[in-house]
Design brief:
- Four copies of one chain form a homotetramer.
- With 361 residues, chain A is an alpha+beta fold.
- In chain A, 27% of the residues lie in helices and 23% in strands.
- The first copy, chain A, has helices spanning 37-47, 94-99, 107-113, 131-147, 182-197, 225-233, 255-258, 329-356, and strands spanning 4-5, 10-15, 21-27, 65-68, 70-71, 74-75, 80-85, 151-159, 162-163, 204-211, 239-244, 262-265, 268-271, 279-280, 283-284, 289-295, 305-309, 314-318.
- In chain A, the strands form six sheets. In chain A, strands 1-2-3-7-4 form a five-stranded antiparallel sheet, covered by helices on one side. Chain A has a five-stranded antiparallel sheet with strand order 9-8-10-16-11. A two-stranded antiparallel ribbon of chain A has the order 5-6.
- In chain A, a hairpin with a 2-residue loop joins β14 (279-280) and β15.
- Chains in contact: A-B, A-C, A-D, B-C, B-D, C-D.
- Chains A and B meet through β1, α3, α6, β11 and α7 of A and β1, α3, α6, β11 and α7 of B.
């Protein structure tokens, strides 16, 4: 496993769905930065299960405990570690879980990779629950970035085949279903309900925008902003696609349409359009950074599925019981913000150095 | 700049378009692995300019010289370094190049990031020419993987809005225009010609498939195969989107459609479909790994464009002279193979350890 | 802070002396490896305070809780995290602690580096207490290595100016004062008592030997075994010197004396002497790896010392109260074993790959 | 092989003694920093062979060619690569070289590690010749540090059992035999001559001092200055010991003797003594950083030695022909400066960030 990320800011995520705890360590944060635990709790609540009809009804407190790294609510230069205790740990019937892998999950690949020694309960380390520590780390980074004038905000851009095509320029995080066009949002929710009613699930896309970035972040060829962001974003379970700016749509444009003309705005260089998503040559150009992540539909569905009994090496039907999110996209919105914030703060630390941050707040 | 990539296999790419040389170092290759320079030359030829009507007519020999790391045509355990001399180095008119940034290029971001000290000639380190050393590194990795039964092959999947929808199961590299459906290929070439005739350019997508992988490659959460591949693939200039398996299309499917049912084939576990692109939980599942990269249209176009004179901070029209590829996608095909091969060999080195490789050939 | 170490095996250490907890995450352990918590407890007991008259009387349970990474007592492929709760956390008088830095401690450098935001209580993240999580990580690695036939064992080689010159070929860990010559050990203990009686402290050296290593571990130039071991060993507080084989003494020998002649032993290549400490060109040669670390005397002493009041920028006498180890060397012995074991297991993972480890037990 | 080093500044060293070339890439240097090639040539001359009676008479031009990374004599933000062509490459009698390993060299360990595929000619990648690219990289870093007010300078502290005990406060680099006490230097040279006359060799120690460092460099626990410096310094062939400040001598002192009392000097906090070598808790304290490296005697000696014929697995006498340095310590002095400079500039880049460096000159 390599559940670590970052250069100057090093994130380590640990835990399994039903282990004693899950958590994270952020190593490399400058000292003196305030961490507002209330604000963090509000951020984490956006990812938490049991918020609405589309997420699992299992409700957990999920309040992180900071084990170290804080003194009087501020970072102290030492690694910042927070954990969330798992209240419903259960040993479960290991053998059964391991014998019949769920399609679309890591069950089979983990069984082979770890030679049967993996933790199969609740998805183990592959569980979507591991996005909780990602959101703790990201939530802390978001607070720091905010004070530097950098805002990171995401929204649901599509669910199934329903897209919200409205331009995305300001946060919609306060909405329970974070879309811009509420009409589109209604249709999306209807699509989720329809899938749920049939014991099925749907996927969607999340768009994320970052404003207030300096010109010059990102290092090429392999540490450009796209590479850095992609590396962490593909670490979110269920992400299967990623694009920056117009991305795949760019590949269908002419150069004359896709190039962003330079202009002068308020005495500074800007671009008239932003097809490139604020990144040229891997380096931020001062325009909003814009990316879109594609989430596959929740693999846990009520419908019967074909699997293989690994012990008998025979086909066997699989029926997944329990309640699962018919669509994880609404809860994925803060996860995308978190991952983006971590990658960006890491880049800013390399750009400005740790000394610089003592001027923040 | 961070032009280094990899864990167990560390790639370092260096050079600027008009510096004395460009090149690469691969550190971490086990000893005793044969490097066939003829085969490598054939691979590099696929990326080289001047191959057909769609690429720049500047023809360069581009034969790499191996400075070290080889003894009698085999790796010797020491870093492998190869360089390509730049024959047409030219100092050029720096000031002019820097004052008027080309839309869609790294000119402006580099100017700000490097405070005017960057190498602006021919795009400097941001030039597509830097994919030549990427292809040297990747070409070496491809040869090693091939002997381990792992094949990496890519093709043009679309140009502008013309897609080649044929399933991709075997290499088409021998074709001058590497598509599956020649009919689609004809339309694509017509689209490129049309753009070129209007002083414009087009983009497209490249699909890459990797067969013969063991089950179990990739480490989660942040070193899953998607993260590892994305990190290096977004290092190829002009890549703005990436998806694995059905990627963005997955986000529009139901779970029951997108989940790949398990079955037994030839006594081994397989999946009936491959929507996931051979990766579950970041780990290879033994099915073909499948990805698709989106390339934006070549930003260098003959049409007049709006720019800003950075000295005067005034709008100024820009006319780019010289010949440029109206579409870089055909030449990008081997670059995608190269990048994928490097990421995969790096993963295999961690998986098997260096000792294992002494059994290879 | 960068409290992370390792390539294939990544260690992250977190915590401050008086934070809620201290702990560690080991990411990259293959799955299926047994962790014997009883054996680990015995190992940790060797480092724990309050064992004898030379260590602080503060007795803590210091039993680690494994939060995740284990299933039924075996590693599961997910990161392994363990924490030790701090039972005597106390906010303390921050201002006073920070104003008057203790000579020989990190108080002053941390005050400047972290701009006053560091955790000053009990040394914060710089406390020797942070060697407890190092020993958890190292204790786990030692168990795994043992099963691979690799033994790591250390002993007190000198205290103050009293050396134990006996050759070190077998563990003496079961001794309460781990020396080979008990006569020398008696003199050492007398030296510690004498220093303690005068409100002073003494230092010493620890020798560590690793047997059973394969030929070929270590990667040059910068990941040779000396570099890898030195990187982690200098992370143990109070280590100010390190030598491999004869080290500094080698610098006074002739080449003809220092070169280790090759010979054949039991059908394998060996060396008649082992001045090089089992490492040639950064690579293990199959002979016992041998290193020696120099520990400075405990900086916390009862005697009055000169300091500077940082608020007033005036000289001020400092009197340190409380009980401190008059010599930390006895408790440092398992820390050196732990650090060495981590570096060696990391190297073996790169050498053999993770797959190889499934054959272990 | 892992011939890479560094975090924000990444050094990659490549080449073998008799390959086409040796060289280095430094990735991560900010743009706009002047590289004075004349000054660099003077620095490299101090390491070059053939300077005096103690070094091999083989005289090579060894002028580095910068392949890229410079524009008009200044760094341009792209990786900086320089190579030195090997003029006397020769294939040699591989089999003979490999069959009879030289004691004290990497011949045997490389033979086993690389399964016979290593480059055995002239020591291959393990040759002391690889310190030439280290000195190119270090020489560039030294120039940058100098302009920031940071000076790195080393001297011979001992040869065989003759020590130069004079305090080391100012550079003696201009001396052909860089010692402080010329009387001690005469005795050292006599010791080298005596060893040479007997077909033997001697070792010694090099002391290095760094002045002008800010308070606060270094990150703990594992990226403290000792760890960072040790990691690269043990990469210099023949280094077998390293100590900071009083190092091993500290282990024989009382705490009251070894602690450095704080005082106020010129309105700033200083220490009355500097036993700690300018590092407390892994972090620089503003006093001169001081370290000492132990070099073993040159393993290549004229005297007959015992080896083992690896083909026959029989003892066989070895006679090494050709001329070798009877003592490499004089030429090692700039290598220690180079390695230290690289580690320090890397730390400063993390501390200050790349943006900061645009104020330098």
């Amino acid at each position: 496993m390599s559940s670590t990320y970052g250069h100057s800011l090093r994130l380590s995520i640990f835990g399994q769905s039903h282990a004693n705890a899950i958590g994270m360590t952020l190593d490399g944060l400058p000292a003196g930065l305030a961490v507002d635990e209330q604000e963090l709790a509000r951020f984490l609540a956006r990812r938490a299960p049991g918020q609405n009809e589309f997420s699992t009804t299992r409700k957990e407190p999920d309040a992180p405990e900071f084990l170290c790294g804080l003194v009087n609510g501020r970072t102290c230069g030492a690694p910042l570690t927070a954990v969330i205790r798992n209240t419903n740990t259960r040993p479960g019937d290991y053998a059964a879980l391991r014998a019949l892998p769920r399609p679309g999950h890591a069950d089979y690949t983990a069984e082979v990779k770890y030679h049967g020694f993996q933790d199969p309960t609740g998805g183990g380390h592959f569980s979507g629950r591991l996005t909780a520590p990602l959101c703790i780390a990201g939530g802390v980074c978001l607070q720091i970035l905010e004070r530097m004038g950098v805002r990171v905000f995401a929204r649901i851009a599509s669910i199934a085949d329903i897209a919200d095509d409205a331009p995305f320029t300001a946060p919609v995080s306060e909405k329970p279903f974070p879309v811009i066009s509420d009409a589109a949002g209604e249709k999306m929710q209807a699509a989720i309900r329809a899938a749920k009613a049939e014991g099925d699930s749907v996927g969607g896309t999340v768009e994320c925008v970052v404003t207030g970035l300096p010109v010059g972040l990102g290092d090429g060829m392999f540490d450009g902003m796209e590479s850095r962001l992609a590396h962490i974003l593909f670490g979110i379970p269920a992400v299967k696609g990623l694009e920056f700016g117009d991305g795949f749509a760019s590949s269908r444009l002419r150069g004359s349409e896709n190039n962003d003309a330079f202009c002068v705005q308020d005495g500074r260089v800007a671009t008239r359009t932003n097809h490139c998503g604020g990144i040229l040559g891997g380096i931020t150009n001062g325009m909003p950074l814009r990316l879109r992540a594609a989430f596959k539909p929740t693999p846990s569905i009520a419908k019967a599925q074909e699997s293989v009994n690994l012990t008998a090496m025979q086909p066997e039907a699989l029926n997944i019981h329990g309640r699962h999110d018919p669509c994880i996209v609404p809860r994925a919105v803060p996860c995308v913000e978190a991952a983006a914030a971590i990658a960006i703060l890491d880049s800013m630390l390399e750009f400005y150095g740790t000394e610089y941050f003592y001027g923040i707040e």
